[in-house]
Amino acid sequence: MQIIPPALERLIADLTRLPGIGRKTATRLALYILRRPAAEGRNLAHDLMVLHDTIHLCHQCFTFSETDPCAICGNPGRDSRLVCVVEEPGDQIAIEKTGVFRGTYHILHGVIAPMDGIGPDELKIRELRQRVASGQVDEVLIATSSTVPGEATASYLAEMLQDTKVRLSRLACGIPMGMDIKYADEHTLARAVESRQSVPGRT
Amino acid sequence: MQIIPPALERLIADLTRLPGIGRKTATRLALYILRRPAAEGRNLAHDLMVLHDTIHLCHQCFTFSETDPCAICGNPGRDSRLVCVVEEPGDQIAIEKTGVFRGTYHILHGVIAPMDGIGPDELKIRELRQRVASGQVDEVLIATSSTVPGEATASYLAEMLQDTKVRLSRLACGIPMGMDIKYADEHTLARAVESRQSVPGRT
């Protein structure tokens, strides 16, 4: 017997498609929305409805933006000759929050994952090569995640850009700030030892 | 500097209002929706838009339903003289899933919580009293949660219905099925000892 009304069931099914949301959470969210005033649900619906019409990809860095070029590519105060390559717009948001990066970005929109059928042609990699080939880039900072596919993508990019004159760099790996050394995992600790940095003022 | 486009920022703010969804999860969900085809986002938007127009409260049990009476109240196979009182439609869904309850329901839409300004008049309690006073109910099974406000609401209902001829019952409390006794919390274990049940066929 169908206890959940069809309209509610459809919303639950929609929500279950979102990442990290199972059937129980989706039901809880849908019932919450139903209990709240109709205006709140309609507001969320409206913001969803206009989302894809309002936001497009910046033609230069391929981030999500309402303007083209995006606010960063169009900002003369940012160093367009330093390009930080990230997997997703969410990674760019995280780096921007630090406030220390003054260059521009290049969003790949994924990582190379042959098992999922994602090769270089499915990502914005050709566009990165063209951007570098145009001679307007001095340094490419590869900021893919330190996961297996992230590292594989970084290696691919490094090899692809090997015969160009561009300077290549990678985010530093090591002990996270505030972490007790005895709780660091062995791979991170090994990397931190190998990549040890000299103390300023000493030789 | 605004790195997140305003339309995306509005969606993130909407999602943050949902229970259990913080800023990070909301950002992850919004970026996911943006990466998926526009049709998927619009589908979710549509289902949200029609939700409150399609679903109303059953006039008898006050559950969410597209029909009035709801599928359970309108089913002659259900025992309308046995009424299970729950806090929320989600509780009703959980009980229906067990498949063992053949009566009808009464949804309070909350619990008595004086600190939050929620007294009996804010809940469907007057309607329960009327339903019982009409003489069409033999047993009221109080199935509020075994939390402090749930127990307080149950006590209030029991007192309110004391001078009626209706039979009152409460969900059994005890050790959850499959639980190792040494991991049960002391309150649950104390309740299980106090409410011990006699073994059938013995005296």
Automatic annotation (TrEMBL), chains A, B:
Domain Toprim: 81-176
InterPro entries assigned to the protein according to its UniProt record, in alphabetical order: DNA_Rcmb_RecR, Rcmb_RecR, Rcmb_RecR_Znf, TOPRIM_dom, TOPRIM_RecR
Domain of life: Bacteria
Biological process, per Gene Ontology: DNA recombination; DNA repair
Gene Ontology terms for molecular function: DNA binding; zinc ion binding
ZnF endpoints (C4-type): 58-73
Keywords: DNA damage, DNA recombination, DNA repair, Metal-binding, Zinc, Zinc-finger
Pfam families, per the entry: RecR_C, RecR_HhH, RecR_ZnF, Toprim_4
PANTHER family per the UniProt record, alphabetical: RECOMBINATION PROTEIN RECR (PTHR30446)
Family, similarity comment: Belongs to the RecR family.
Role played: May play a role in DNA repair. It seems to be involved in an RecBC-independent recombinational process of DNA repair. It may act with RecF and RecO.
Listed name of the protein: Recombination protein RecR
